[in-house]
Specification:
By secondary structure, the chain is of the alpha+beta class. It contains six helices and seven strands. The radius of gyration is 14 Å and the shape is globular.
Length: 153
C-alpha cells in the first residue's frame, strides 16, 4: 500500500528530535521529518529523517534547497483546490504555514475524506510536530497563515 512507507517513517519520527544535531533549528528538524515522509511515499521505501537531513543542503539561514523533482506553489489563492488535485493524482502535498509569531511549521497532506465542498476539515494530514493533529483544519487553527506547498512533479 502506498501509505505504508509514510506510516513507517512516522514510527521512526518518535525519537527523531532528540537524535537530531543540536545545531539544527526546530524548522530544519521539522522540515527534515516532513520531507522524509514525502520521499518515503515517492520512493515506496522508508527514509529516516536523519538520513534525509544528510541528503539535503541548506542556505546559511537554514532554509532548504529543494530537490529539483519538487514543484512549489506560493499563492494562497485556490490552494485547497490545488492540493485536492495533487491528492487525486496520488501525490501527497507538503504544506507550510505560519503562526501569529511568524514561526513556520510543515505537514504532509495525505488525503481527502470527501464531501460537497473543499474545506480544511476534510483533508487528512501527518504532522511531524503533533500526533494529535490529524486534519488540515486542526493544523490551520494553530498555524493560520498559508506559506507555500510543495509536491512531486
Amino acid at each position: 500500500m502506498k501509505w505504508i512507507p509514510i506510516l513507517m517513517a512516522l514510527l521512526l519520527l518518535s525519537g527523531c528530535a532528540a537524535q537530531a544535531q543540536k545545531e539544527q533549528s526546530y524548522r530544519q528538524i521539522n522540515m527534515d521529518e516532513a520531507i522524509a515522509m514525502m520521499e518515503s511515499s515517492r520512493t515506496g521505501t522508508t527514509i529516516n529523517p536523519d538520513t534525509m537531513a544528510k541528503q539535503l543542503t541548506y542556505t546559511p539561514s537554514g532554509s532548504v534547497y529543494w530537490p529539483s523533482h519538487y514543484a512549489t506553489v506560493t499563492s494562497s489563492s485556490g490552494y485547497l483546490s490545488g492540493i485536492y488535485a495533487r491528492l487525486k493524482s496520488g501525490k501527497p502535498v507538503l504544506l507550510g504555514a505560519r503562526n501569529a509569531y511568524g514561526k513556520q511549521h510543515w505537514v504532509v497532506v495525505t488525503g481527502y475524506t470527501g464531501g460537497n465542498s473543499l474545506t480544511p476539515a476534510r483533508f487528512t494530514i501527518h504532522d511531524p510536530g503533533s500526533y494529535s493533529r490529524t486534519t488540515l483544519q486542526q493544523f490551520l487553527s494553530v498555524y493560520p497563515t498559508f506559506y507555500k506547498y510543495f509536491y512531486v512533479r
